[in-house]
Amino acid sequence: MKTLIVITGPTGVGKTSISIQIAEKYDTEIISADSRQLYRDIPIGTAAPTAEQTARVKHHFVATMSLEEYYSAAQFEEDALAQLDKIFTTHDYAVMCGGSMLYVDAICKGIDSIPTISEDVRSRVLNIYTQEGIEAVKAQLSLLDSEYYSIVDLNNHKRVIHALEICLQSGRSYTSLRTGEKKIRPFRIVKIALTLPREELFERINYRVEEMLVQGLEEEARRVYPLRHLNSLNTVGFKEMFAYLDGTMDYITAKERIKKNTRVYAKKQLTWYAKDDTIIWCRPILSDVEASISKAMLKP
């Protein structure tokens, strides 16, 4: 049976190293499920696999897009499934590595058929947001989809904006498009989530932020600073560095804020994973992960 081994878990837990070793064991390739590692020119800020790591195992969906390009979980579902078809023609196993929850779910569960947002609609909503503010976006969403408006996190501006884009693009309410039905895949899925005690995970996150700064995160942020308005750069690490470059935050504050916001993101990931009863939890120890995969594959 063709098998997809998913290595997921919170940021900073050690997914990349484990996934490479698992891919080597099963002599296969890696599908990256990281919504930021897709983009070129920001390898430090996205903790992308190094040249040495990608030389060891072939990676897909790493540094394949320009920062200006738009990409969605729906597009990832289509593209990654097509790539898995190719991998499975010559391999019995494939590995998927990443912590972008929607991307992982797109492959493991499938996501609803949401229309791709056109540049025209994206510009229309962006103009509303920039000229009239988020309250105007919320007001329109409330009119077009009061049901979704009642449950969406109104403090998550990105989600509110995207919901309005979907309503305008489809001519229907977002709610009517959200079926939540799980799709059946023609391959077995073994889903491993790496975990550590909270204090140890947070120490690793803090250390990794320090390492990113040593590697040149500030210089990388300076290079892409003229593009700071792009969605691809609306992420932890760059937002704080841009605030520092804007002069609205000093360097030490920016560094500590990156650590804090990364820890907050890790908590959100753990909350998301806690709802998934298909996950097998493991410490990021190769022998433990290998044993869990082998045990899962013995099940009918």
Q: SS-based structural class? A: alpha/beta
Strand content: 5-15%
Q: Indicate the mean pLDDT.
A: 94
Shape: globular
What is the CATH homology-level superfamily of the largest domain? P-loop containing nucleotide triphosphate hydrolases
| Alpha plus pi helix count | 14
Distance between the termini: 11 Å
Explain what the structure shows.
The protein folds into 2 domains: 3-112 and 181-298, P-loop containing nucleotide triphosphate hydrolases (Rossmann fold, 3-Layer(aba) Sandwich), CATH 3.40.50.300; 119-177, Orthogonal Bundle (Histone, subunit A). α10 crosses α13. It is built from 14 helices and 6 strands. 54% of the residues lie in helices and 9% in strands. The longest helix is centred in the C-terminal third of the chain and has 23 residues, at 251-273. The protein has 300 residues and is of the alpha/beta class. The protein is globular and about 55 Å long. α2 (51-56) links the parallel β2 and β3 (59-60). A 6-stranded parallel beta sheet has the order 3-2-4-1-5-6, sandwiched between helices.
Topology:
Blueprint: E1 3-8, H1 15-25, E2 30-32, H2 51-56, E3 59-60, H3 73-90, E4 93-97, H4 101-108, H5 119-132, H6 134-144, H7 146-151, H8 157-170, H9 174-177, E5 188-194, H10 198-215, H11 217-224, H12 238-246, H13 251-273, E6 280-282, H14 286-298
Parallel strand pairs: 1-4, 1-5, 2-3, 2-4, 5-6
Helix pairs in contact: 3-4, 5-6, 5-8, 6-8, 10-13, 11-12, 12-13
